[in-house]
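Subject — a protein and its fold
Fields — amino acid sequence, structure tokens
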Amino acid sequence: MTFRSLSSRSLVLAMSLLAAGASSAAAQRQAAPGSARATAQRTLNAFAQRNAEAFAREVSPEDLAGFRTQLLPQLKTALSGQQREQALAMIAPARSYEEAEKLPAERLYAIYMGAVMKRVATAGSVTITNTILGEVPEGDSLVHVVYRQHFRQGANDAASVKVLSLRRTPGGWKVKLDQPGLAAQPGR
């Protein structure tokens, strides 16, 4: 897989994530502090605001580590080839592989997703609303938050039901990346 295909996937992912991000007033009803629903609301809000750092704080540390592990080898290859400028743009302000390699997983993910979000923003005006419909627990440490997403860009209008999965960690509920619509992990 090339860095270019990774970036194309990232654009598709970011559109999906940004679509997941804009939230309606209905989705903002009070969630119990510390609940999976509250984490889902913060996650959706982070994308509505195109705040990659806030989103990265909501991601499972295990998933961030997996993302980092998969991204770094692809980044190294891209930086040593014809895609160097594009790769550097994706990891700025890091100026080399060595600088990117030293970044903590959460920061590297935030930088990468921030670059993807900037590219998506150039696609034009998009109106997205999300309404959280409910939660489906799967045991004590996994919850799926179900929400309806309404997406409008120009004359295009679509609605769908989506799922945001969260796992319980020592730091509270965190978003899983290895799911449809959030498969932000390079190489997937």
Observations:
- Residues 3-175 form one domain.
- Residues 3-21 form the longest helix (19 residues).
- The beta strands are 127-137, 142-153, 156-169, 172-175.
